Amino acid sequence: MLKLSSILILLSLLYFHHTLSTATKPSSNTNHSNTANDDDVTNFIKAECRTATLYPSLCIQCLSTYNSTTTPLSSHKQLAQAALSVSLSRARSAATFISKAARIRGLKPMEYRAVKDCVENMASTVDQLSRAVKELGGWSGTHNQVDFNWHDSNVESWVGAALTFQNTCLDGFSSPVIGGSVEVAVRVRVIDCAQVTSNALALVHRYAARHKLVRTTSSESTVNSP
Fold first, then answer.
1. What does pTM read for this prediction?
2. Which of 178, 198, 200, 224 is deepest in the core (most CB within 10 A)?
3. What are the residue ranges in the chain where pLDDT is below 70?
C-alpha cells in the first residue's frame, strides 16, 4: 500500500499539471502582430496589478501567462474577466485535489472532518465563481449606470462569497490537533486560490470604478457642451 506521503506527492503532481493546463484558454492565434503593443499590454497588466491588488506578483504572473495565450488584455474589463477565469480554474483544480485527499486512508477523524468540510466549501467556491464569470461575460458594459451597478453588485457579491468559503475551509484546519502533510497540502492550495480570488475581486472593483468615472465624465461633458 502506498504511504500517505507518496499519495500526496502524486496528487500534487496531478494538481499542478491540471492547473498549468487549465489556467489559460489556448487560442489558435497566439502570435501578437506587434511587439510594441505586447510591451504596452504587459506594462498595463503590471501597472493595474500593482495599483489594485494585494498580491501583485501573483497577479502579474497569472495574467501575463493568460495574456500570452489569448487576445491581448488591453482593457479593465478584459483584465477582470481574465482574473476571474484564472480564479475559477484554480478553484476547480483545488477542489479536485481536496476531493481526492478526502479519500486517502489513514486520516485522523478531526482531519477527515476538516477535509470533508473543505470539499463542500470549495464546491461552493466553484459555484460562486462560475456565476461571477457568467455574469461578467454576459454584460456589455454599455448599460445605463443603474443596470451596470446591479450587474457589478452581483459579481462582487459572488466573488466575495467565494473568498468567504475559502477562508472557512482554512478555519477548519486552525486546530493545533490537526497537522501533518494533508493539512499542509490542502492549506497551500486554498491559500493560493484565495489570493488569486482576492486579486480578481480587486480588478472587478477597479473595472467598475473606472466605468463609473468614465460615465460621470462623459455626462458632465455633455451637460457643459455649448
1. 0.79
2. 200
3. 1-36, 69-71, 140-143, 214-226
